Amino acid sequence: MQRIILIIIGWLAVALATLGVVLPLLPTTPFLLLAAWCFARSSPRFHHWLLYRSWFGSYLRYWQKYRAMPPGAKPKAIAVIVVTFAVSLYLVDLLWVRVLLLTILSGLLIFMWRIPVVDEKQQKP
Fold first, then answer.
1. What CA–CA distance (Å, rounded) separates 121 from 125?
2. Using CA atoms, how far apart are residues 32 and 10, in angstroms rounded to an integer?
3. What's the pLDDT at 93?
4. Burial 36-60 (b: 16+ CB within 10 A, else e)
5. How would you class 10 by CB atoms within 10 Å of its CB: exposed for 0-12, middle for 13-18, buried for 19 or more?
6. How far apart are the C-alpha atoms of 53 and 57, rounded to whole Å?
7. Is 61 helix (H, G, I), strand (E, B) or coil?
8. Contact 56/63 with Cβ under 8 angstroms?
9. pLDDT tens-digit profile of 108-122?
């Protein structure tokens, strides 16, 4: 029963992570890490799929191996964050919601800026 619950939670986390790619207030990374954790404890097949077949796999493998992002991923992630928040700020008319979005954007950018990036020396065996 526990295995089935972990698989369900893992797939819900994958779905939420996928939505988080385009929705500015929904984080992607924590849901991916949760899915990897659930699948590692419940289904080797789904865990392998997540790490080697899914769109997010390379990022998860880098995180597991180096505790860092692959080269070039950070600027892309920051660009996506800024663009999605810019669209949200453009569409929202309420001042307090704009202030909230700008606060969240600031926090996300600070968080992203602090995540390390794998350099050339680390990647070599």
1. 9
2. 8
3. 93
4. bebbbebbeebbeebbeebebbebb
5. buried
6. 6
7. helix
8. no
9. 899 889 988 887 666
The first and second tokens of residue 38, run together, are: 């659930």
Whether the Cβ atoms of residue 59 and residue 107 lie closer than 8 Å to each other = no
Name the residue with tokens 């954790």. Answer: 37
Tokens of 112: 């992203």
**pLDDT at position 121:** 67
Tokens 């819900």 sit on residue? 12
Angle CA 104–68–86, to nearest 5: 25
Determine the 3-state secondary structure of 72 from DSSP. coil
Q: Whats the size of the chain, residue-wise?
A: 125
Q: Which residues of the chain have pLDDT under 50?
A: none
- Would you state the structure tokens that stand for residue 50, as one six-digit string? 């997540």
The number of C-alpha atoms within 13 Å of 117 and in the hemisphere containing its C-beta is: 12
Secondary structure (DSSP) of 7-19: HHHHHHHHHHHHH
